[in-house]
Amino acid sequence: MKKILVFVLVLLAFQSVFAKTTPSESENLSRGYDAYKMEDWASAVFYLKKAVASSSTATEENYFMLIKSEIFAGEYKQAHADCELFLEQYPFSRYAPYIKYQDGRLLHLLGKNERAILFLSDFCHEYQGHELYPLALFWIAESFYDEYNFDSARGIYSRIVSDFSTSDYVADAEYKLALIERRNREEKLLYLLKVTGEENLSTREEYERQIKIYEAEDKIGLKKQLVDAQNRISELEAVIASDEQAKKDASGKYLADIEKLKLKAQKIQFLLEEQSIEAEENKAGGK
Known about the structure:
The structure is a single chain. 83% of the residues lie in helices and 0% in strands. The chain is mainly alpha-helical.
């Protein structure tokens, strides 16, 4: 949907730009737009690069489409360079907030997490009410997580879950919170072994008892989340099927919510299966 919206935005500027171009320039531009619409990112990048290389078609809309195409094509380094160029040339563009967000996210994807945190923090400070604000928070959390700063990451993931429950990244944030919680528990148990000595029988028994308690708590919490998500999916599907007016008025919104819930349920199921596998391995290893 976002790709289509971007295409519609730039299409509004297409006719005025097209009228001022030579046949070869207009052909590059037309092919670039067509490739973007068809999600042929390699071709879109190829033709849009040619388009922005010409003064008559080097518009902010075309640069914006080029950057989006480079991101979808996985050309993160080039996309980052073009983001920097865009912000130099069009600092007051209506696309500037989107480019700043993408620039920070690209820094994370390139492994430059400290810079990503700074860039995205600046974005959040400057655009507190922007639609991309919760997404910027998520990538800040991801950057902290990849740098093993789990305390900072946990605080931001928790905020996304509590304050931005409709965000597309809530399921991902909950998944990372579960991983962080598991890691903290493992560290506590390892510390217990270190302090009291591995050869102490009572310590081993306490260690195994704590593991069982933590595993049980994890499963209870995750299973509850899974059941809640599945129940909500059933409720929304019932609403859609209830009458024709509901289908017409809100099916789009409900279907989007259902997809998010299904994604969340899938991730929770993965965690539960992962725990079951670990439990079996531990059981086998203890024999």
